[in-house]
Amino acid sequence: MLEQPPLKTEIVVVASGKGGTGKTVILASLGYALQTSGLRVLYVDTDTATDGLSLFLLGPDGPRAQPDVEPKNTYSGFLRAIDANEVAPDATIPFRVNRVETSVGYDVFLSSRGLYGNVDEEIGQQVMPSLTREQFQNAIKRFFDEIKASNKWDYVLIDTRGGFGYNTTDVCALADSFFLVTEANPSSFFQDKSLMARISVAANDLGRKPYFRGVIVNKATDGFLNDPGAAGVQSLDLSKVEVKFRDLASSVFQIRYDDTYAVPIDVDVVNAYRWQQVTYIQHPGSVFSYATLSAFSSLMSVVSVRWPEENVRMWNEFVNRISTAIKSENEATITRSQQQEALLADKLNLETEVARLRAQTEETKKSYDVALESLQYLRSKDEVATRNAALAAKSSRNSLLGLAGVSALLGVAAFAIYSGYSITGQAAKQQNDRTQVIEAQLNSLQSKNAQVEQQLSTINNAAQNGSILSGPHVRIFYQDASSHDFAPILAGSLKQRGFLVDALSAKESGANPISNEIHFQARDPQAEVVANTLVSSVNEELASYCRPAATVRPRFSPTDAKIDTLDIWLFAPCLGPKLAK
Fold first, then answer.
1. Which among 39, 43, 222, 489 could bridge 154 via Cys, Cβ 3.0 to 4.6 Å?
2. What separation, in Å, do the N-terminal and C-terminal C-alpha atoms of the chain show?
3. Strand ranges in 160-274 using DSSP code E only, listed in sequence order
4. DSSP code at position 103
């Protein structure tokens, strides 16, 4: 087998017509992907105004490493040496950054030594030395030539300052290739248009033809945020994201649509950047990881020398690893979506049950008010009847006293008085009996109203606490023929109460009921109240269906599970059919 020639060093520049597009994060991600594939990568931070790449690669422990940085390890140090005509043969020595927390190392020419504002000799100097444009171009040529002559790296990734000054355009013109990172807005577009025009002029003046690899549209939103399938990473069609902007960019920059790449906006990138960490490490299953790896696979497909087989294999392994993380994240997203839908359904069932109980409470209050009015009327009528009877008795006595000498009439009057008292007493007794009946009905309504209020209060409390009352999942396990026939009847009854119900064969489900029980597993002890209530309902349904062999007993088991369950076990619940009365 013929040995493949070693890779020759390729210098790739990332540029942007304005700052803040995310080119530093994109470049760092590309470098990590290449390094993971076994390729040798050198990073160069030419943005001496913001030091973005230098600070990102140094990481949280950068201030402790900063004292070890020498001028020869920095881009500005190299330019100052050129300005002073003091460049030594070993002047281009990158700084080695070892990130202990991720076991990743970077070779990098930092922007300057004064990254953290604590180097006095650099604070008093200009950010860039006062080189003419021609001096700057010669310095960059020499810098690139020395790096390539060392043959220590396969790729040199250069981060530039946003904008279209010659410290950016000329670096792109002198590189082997470059690509743009932009955002889908008018400001970015017109500034990138100016940048591309100036790069073209600089390349012509220098007699160079750098390869333009393409455009990455970062923080994309159109076709992503309004895409119903965007919740699942793998369902995202990147070719349909920012279509109008990419059509315009491909037309103006004279490239194919396929050479434009959309990277949707992703909060995971913000979280990773906060910790100065590559997103592939912090959030491998993110939308950003999926989109950038898709872009890099195409963006870097053109190489000056074909990659060795080992590097291709390692790149594919890296792609597979990220793909596995994306698949896991996608499955987790779908699960979260399903759980959210279930919670919304539970919430709707709860609201329906609350509305039903409130309506029942109002109806009970109305019945209570009617009964109370009836009772007050009967009591008033009873008082009037008693008062009239007393007046009649008094009148009868006065009349009889006027006829004291007539003994025959006295006997008749005495009989009449006796009869009057007897009739009045019977009427009073009837009224009293009716009053007691109504009072009993009133007490019953009051008790029923209290039960309804208690159920309503329990449901409201449970809804606030996120307990079982927010809509448990009910599973009915049936064992024999009678329970097989009874299970769907019971399921229908519980569904009317707002529960999610499944009737399952115990044999097929692997359950083994040995008694008639309800296993009520919930996070909130208040759920035991509902368990006992449902036990009564189940036994009532059972009694109306057949002659029960035994009542269904509750068994309450506290749990820390996120989903509350109600398992009804039916083990030969019927002795026989219900007897006719």
1. 39
2. 96
3. 177-183, 211-220, 260-264
4. T
pLDDT band at 2 (very low <50, low <70, confident <90, very high): very low
C-alpha distances in Å from residue 571, one per residue of 91, 298, 354, 486, 568:
86, 63, 33, 11, 10
- What span, in angstroms and rounded, lies between the C-alpha atoms of 32 and 21? 19
**In whole angstroms, what is the distance from residue 460 CA to residue 51 CA?**
56
Cβ 295 vs Cβ 258: under 8 Å: no
**Tokens in use for 514?**
């040995």
Yes or no: say if 15 and 177 are a contact pair by the CB < 8 Å rule: no
Contact yes or no for 568/555 (Cβ under 8 A): no
Alpha carbons 73 and 43: distance in angstroms, whole number: 11
Q: Where is 518: in which H helix or E strand?
A: strand 517-522
Q: How far is residue 120's CA from residue 128's CA, in Å, rounded to a whole number? A: 16
Separation CA 128–CA 219 (nearest Å): 31
Between β-strands 104-109 and 155-159, what pairing exists: parallel, antiparallel or unpaired? unpaired
Report pLDDT for 359.
81
The amino acid that residue 221 corresponds to is T
Is the distance from CB of 299 to CB of 33 less than 8 angstroms? no
Please return the burial class of 493, using the count of CB atoms within 10 Å of its CB with bins 0-12, 13-18 and 19+: middle
CA 316/CA 298 separation, integer angstroms: 13
